[in-house]
Amino acid sequence: MVNNEILKEDTGEAINLSAQKRADKREGTRSYIALVYVIGYLFIVFGVLVIGVFKNFELTGYKDLLLAVSGILSGPLGFIIGYYFKSNKEE
Questions:
Q1: CA-closest candidate to residue 48, choices 66, 68, 70
Q2: Residue 25 predicted with pLDDT over 60
């Protein structure tokens, strides 16, 4: 009977450890996706500036192109940054 109780405790700890490993892996994946999105966003903005140089845009052309790109991509970027700053506050 005592051996069964020890086995249950050991199994419970193993299950909790497994759940913790999955949670850590999930958080690592989320962080990786967020990092890739932020770096991609910066590369796209840089690409817009390079396109403007090759197309000889004036200031209004740059402004319009940057507004279009940032309007599309800034919403998800803000959500990602807000999510991670909120999760850092809770810890």
A1: 66
A2: yes
The residue behind tokens 């850092």 is 88
Look up residue 4 and give its two tokens: 């069964």
Closest CA to 73 of 49, 32, 33, 37: 37
- Statement: residue 21 has pLDDT above 80: no
Number of domains in the chain: 1
Contact assessment for residue 84 and residue 44, using Cβ atoms and an 8 Å cutoff: no
Instruction: Please answer whether residues 81 and 89 qualify as being in contact, where contact means their C-beta atoms are separated by less than 8 angstroms.
Output: no
Cα 8 from Cα 5, distance rounded (Å):
5
pLDDT in tens, 35-57: 888 899 999 989 988 888 888 88
Domain of residue 23: give its range.
Answer: 2-90
